[in-house]
Write a structure and sequence with these properties.
single chain, alpha+beta, Glucose Permease (Domain IIA), 2 domains, binds zinc ion
Length: about 210
């Protein structure tokens, strides 16, 4: 039984409304020839959903700012073997992670989409489609970490995790300033960006003093 994401608006769709998950992350799928997959579904398959009814149309938008590292626009329909992601866009974000959008409708992707192009959050990438290895109109939304390992996209869709580097808090900057001297504010920020958990790390530095 497919479940709903539970949102009033899903960040990968321009339109208002929830999304139905038609294939879960990690779900075992036999004979699933999508690029880079090895039997387990490495993404979430989403269909836009309003008032309990699924929609065949949705405008796909970028989750966050980034750079396009790969894209394909020429796939016209179903493909059982070649170009199984169909028309797609891969975006590298500021925190080093990559978001991937598969099966976009032929002819729906804007002209500006090309390798190396800059993308802003909510930029339109094309329409939800069924190109490549897709048995119905849906978005295969995949998220990969810095090492190319697929991770659960759901926390990103729910806003629990972000593709932007965590900005250091003013408190953390102040704490670090107590411990070390920096020639500039920018230098302090740069040092802080290297720490994973700013609060705890700076706390430790102060205690050690
Ligand atoms: Zn999928």
């Amino acid at each position: 039984m497919a479940r709903l994401l539970g949102l009033s608006k899903v960040p990968v769709f321009a339109e208002e409304g929830d999304a139905k998950i038609t294939s879960e992350f990690g779900e075992i799928i036999n004979d699933y020839p999508v690029e880079g997959q090895t039997g387990r579904h490495t993404a979430l398959d989403l269909v836009r959903c309003t008032d309990g009814k699924t929609s065949e149309t949705a405008t796909i938008t970028s989750m966050a700012d980034g750079i396009i590292i790969a894209q394909r626009k020429w796939v016209k329909g179903f493909s059982s073997a070649k170009a199984t992601a169909g028309n797609c866009v891969y975006i590298k974000h500021r925190n080093g992670m990559v978001s991937k959008y598969f099966h976009l409708e032929y002819g729906s992707m804007p002209e500006w989409i090309c390798d190396g192009a800059e993308v802003k959050k909510n930029d339109v990438l094309g329409y939800m489609g069924a190109t490549g290895y897709a048995f119905g109109v849906h978005l295969h939304f995949q998220v990969e970490d810095e090492n190319g390992v697929c991770v659960d996209p759901e926390p990103y869709l729910l806003g629990i995790k972000s593709f932007d580097p965590e900005p250091p808090s003013p408190t953390a900057i102040y704490r670090l300033a107590l411990k070390r001297e920096f020639s500039s504010y920018d230098e302090a920020i740069k040092a802080l960006n290297g720490l994973n958990d700013i609060g705890i790390s700076t706390e430790l530095l102060i205690r050690q003093k």
